[in-house]
């Protein structure tokens, strides 16, 4: 075993030495320094904890990771530069899922990359609604608590795979940072994937879901960061934001409602979106000044931060593991994996790794089919 290889894969994992000692062997730190060599069984255990094939640890040098060139923008189109190891590994995990799906799916999706940012945003929004099979005022017929599920199901039905998580795979030691990103989209004609940071509020998840869907229709991959400021620097994000707003809060319907209601919270409840979207609609329609917009956003942002803290505290108290696994993993994706197992294309161990769950999680998903 090459010490450099072990050290590289350990560093990529993001785990602490203490965690590896607890999960593998008391001499793990000595294995890293070369002071002692692990036995085959110990090395096998290390590979399991690191979630990599044992063979990789036996190579003379580690395999270089492919770099992910995905645009990294905030909601208001400002660019962010760096990516954490958790984000990078989550992107790689979704790429692996996409590679698997690409081999299992024959048909291509005609809507991926159908439009460009030079198209009329109202036309694109209408086309997306038609593709999803939803009406302009769909929000009137769906309860607020069910709107995320409703849109997720509609988007699933047109061939998009949607995943949620607040950590890397099932690793509670590798939490995803909501301040870094809220979601990302990986385009593909056969297996487009949307990933959403589960640490966000339901309103935040809803916006990210629709926002990333719009990116698929213009064939653009991106990582969506946190909200910040009011200026839209990037023309692609400015266009996507317009289409997203039109789907969530159709402008004609907004103006009709605004004639009788100006309260942002009431409008948000009516359209079943966050107040961020409503305030942006008010600015776009010259109902408020830029100064008023900034003031309102600051107030809403304070409320948003409080909601995120409450959500975090609520999740600390635990939750239903079964429901969480079923929510996180795209059911259509699991069906493809299960079919591959049934047809003996892959083993159960391969299936666990591809999905990113344990034996327990796999059985929960299987029972929920």
Describe this entry's structure for a reader.
The structure is a single chain. This protein is α/β, with parallel strands linked by helices and 369 residues long. The protein has 3 domains: 3-57, 434 Repressor (Amino-terminal Domain), CATH 1.10.260; 71-248, no CATH class; 322-367. The protein has helices at 3-13, 17-23, 28-33, 40-50, 54-57, 85-104, 121-132, 147-156, 202-217, 235-248, 251-258, 264-271, 275-284, 290-316, 321-328, 331-342, 348-355, 359-367, and strands at residues 71-73, 161-165, 167-168, 171-175, 183-186, 193-197, 222-224. The protein has a 5-stranded mixed β-sheet with strand order 1-7-5-6-2, sandwiched between helices. A two-stranded antiparallel ribbon has the order 3-4. A hairpin with a 6-residue loop joins strand 5 and strand 6. The longest helix is centred in the last third of the chain and has 27 residues, at 290-316. It is elongated and about 75 Å long.
Order of strands side by side in the largest beta sheet? 1-7-5-6-2
User: What are the secondary-structure elements, in order, as H or E?
Assistant: HHHHHEHHHEEEEEHEHHHHHHHHH
Work out the helicity level.
40-55%
Uncertain runs with pLDDT below 50, 5 residues or more? Answer: 75-80, 227-231
Topology:
Elements: H1 3-13, H2 17-23, H3 28-33, H4 40-50, H5 54-57, E1 71-73, H6 85-104, H7 121-132, H8 147-156, E2 161-165, E3 167-168, E4 171-175, E5 183-186, E6 193-197, H9 202-217, E7 222-224, H10 235-248, H11 251-258, H12 264-271, H13 275-284, H14 290-316, H15 321-328, H16 331-342, H17 348-355, H18 359-367
Parallel strand pairs: 1-7, 2-6
Antiparallel strand pairs: 3-4, 5-6, 5-7
């Amino acid at each position: 075993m090459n010490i450099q290889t072990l050290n590289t894969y350990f560093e990529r994992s993001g785990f602490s030495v203490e965690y590896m000692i607890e999960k593998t062997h008391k001499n793990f730190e000595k294995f890293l320094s070369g002071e002692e060599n692990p036995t085959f069984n110990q090395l096998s255990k290390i590979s399991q904890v690191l979630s990599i094939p044992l063979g990789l640890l036996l190579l003379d040098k580690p395999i270089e990771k492919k770099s992910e060139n995905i645009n990294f923008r905030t909601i208001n189109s400002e660019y962010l530069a760096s990516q954490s190891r958790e984000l990078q590994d989550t992107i790689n995990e979704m790429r692996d899922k996409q590679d698997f799906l690409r081999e299992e799916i024959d048909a291509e999706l005609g809507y991926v990359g159908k439009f460009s940012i030079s198209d009329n945003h109202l036309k694109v929004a209408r086309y997306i609604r038609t593709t999803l099979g939803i009406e302009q005022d769909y929000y009137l017929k769906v309860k607020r608590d069910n709107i995320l599920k409703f849109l997720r199901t509609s988007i699933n039905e047109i061939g998009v795979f949607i995943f949620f998580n607040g950590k890397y795979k099932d690793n509670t030691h590798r939490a995803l940072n909501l301040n870094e990103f809220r979601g990302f989209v990986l385009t593909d004609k056969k297996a487009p994937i949307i990933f959403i940071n589960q640490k966000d509020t339901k309103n935040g998840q809803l916006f990210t879901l629709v926002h990333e869907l719009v990116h698929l229709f213009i064939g653009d991959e991106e990582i969506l960061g946190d909200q910040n400021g009011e200026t839209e620097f990037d023309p692609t994000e400015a266009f996507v934001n317009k289409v997203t707003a039109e789907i969530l809060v159709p402008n004609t319907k907004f103006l009709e409602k605004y004639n009788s209601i100006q309260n942002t919270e009431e409008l948000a409840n009516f359209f079943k979106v966050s107040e961020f979207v409503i305030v942006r609609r008010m600015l776009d329609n010259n109902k408020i000044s830029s100064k008023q917009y900034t003031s309102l956003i600051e107030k809403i942002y304070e409320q948003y931060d409080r909601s995120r803290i409450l959500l975090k505290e609520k999740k600390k108290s635990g939750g239903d593991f079964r429901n969480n696994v079923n929510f996180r993993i795209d059911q259509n994706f699991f069906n493809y994996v299960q079919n591959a197992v049934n047809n003996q294309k892959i083993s159960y161990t391969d299936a666990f790794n591809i999905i990113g769950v344990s034996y327990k999680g796999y059985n929960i998903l299987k029972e929920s089919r």
